[in-house]
Write a structure and sequence with these properties.
Blueprint lengths: L12 E2 L13 E5 L7 E8 L4 E5 L2 E4 L2 E3 L13 E5 L4 E5 L9 H4 L2 E2 L3 E5 L1
Antiparallel strand pairs: 1-10, 2-3, 2-10, 3-8, 4-5, 4-7, 5-6, 8-9
Length: 120
């Protein structure tokens, strides 16, 4: 999430943050890294269950409509093109520092059960 959150920073994650409501677009969350069971990562939710989400040349589209993503830091223009069709329990998560983030572009959508709290 650099420059938003620096590597090796301490963050507070509230598990109770999602007891009263489901995760929302642009929530910053702590989730289990899908690539390994012993690692946690912090990412921003950009896609919600049931949506069609696309990232085209650093622009975010949800259900074919451009969504203003003011959190994204893209110092180098990208030709990335990623698309996801989300099931009822899936989310797309991206890092704010898009040019240096390992996120849904690499490991795909994440299940609701892997999201363990909202970062404050």
């Amino acid at each position: 999430m650099e420059p938003t959150i620096s590597e090796n920073s301490w963050v507070i994650s509230l598990r109770a943050g999602f007891r009263r409501r489901e995760p929302r677009r642009f929530d910053v969350v702590r989730l289990q890294d899908p690539r390994t069971v012993d690692h946690w990562i912090v990412k921003r939710i950009v896609g919600l269950p049931g949506e069609e989400v696309a990232l085209k040349a650093d622009e975010l589209f949800v259900n074919d409509e451009l969504v203003e993503d003011s959190f994204a830091y893209c110092p180098y223009p990208s030709a990335d093109k990623s698309e996801w069709w989300l099931r009822d329990d899936e989310y797309v998560v991206l890092g704010d520092n898009r040019s240096a983030s390992t996120d849904s572009r690499k490991f795909g959508p994440v299940k609701r059960s892997s999201i363990h709290g909202r970062v404050r």
